[in-house]
Design a protein that fits this description.
The protein has helices at residues 3-7, 41-49, 51-75, 80-106, 118-124, 133-159, 163-190, 193-210. The protein is mostly helical. The structure holds fe (ii) ion (2 copies).
Length: 222
Amino acid sequence: MGREILDGSPYLSRLALHPLNTLISAMPAPSIKFLQSATSNAWIEQAIANLDIVLLDHSHCERKAAGVALNLMFRYPSRTRLVRQLTTIAQEELAHFDQVNQWLEHKGIPLAPLAAAPYGAGLRAEIRPQEPDRLLDSLLVAALIEARSHERLGLLGDHCPDRDLAKFYRSLMASEARHYGAYWVLATHYYDRQLVDDRLASLAQVEKQLLANLYPQPRIHS
Ligand SMILES: [Fe+2]
Ligand SMILES: [Fe+2]
């Protein structure tokens, strides 16, 4: 399971037809349809040259992903479908967090703080403060981050010279794919489909711009 299945998913195909996509510059076509740009070779080279830092950053990403799901459950405790789906995601993200931390331990890398790239804060700044916009934006920002995680873990799985670590990255890809699909499905459950498509295209444009210049420090989302 992986990108091939997602590319064939009917609910991912309409975004490619959105007029905003005609504004996309000549970057390589993304393999994941939520995203409006593909990751550059420069990011892959930077990540592969700094695998220890990327692994440490990955630990932070998994913990934050669990936190996003839990925060939404606390903010919207009466939304039955949201609570059910995000309970699963939070559990999976915590399991990933534990798995990454075991890899860190195996490699003798201690848990330590890392300065975050502007990516997450830049996307969170797009979340409008008033409901019902706030929930829609929160779900779609989470979907975009999960989609980018899926893409980048796949690239690490393809390019990482440590075969066991590469296998581990590939093993996480299917979960991250489910996660971005789940956030998108929740958005379409609570909001009109056209509204979701338009807002997703707009946020994906911001996501692309946030990644336009490679962050000097190696990060999963940089
Ligand atoms: Fe994860
Ligand atoms: Fe995830």
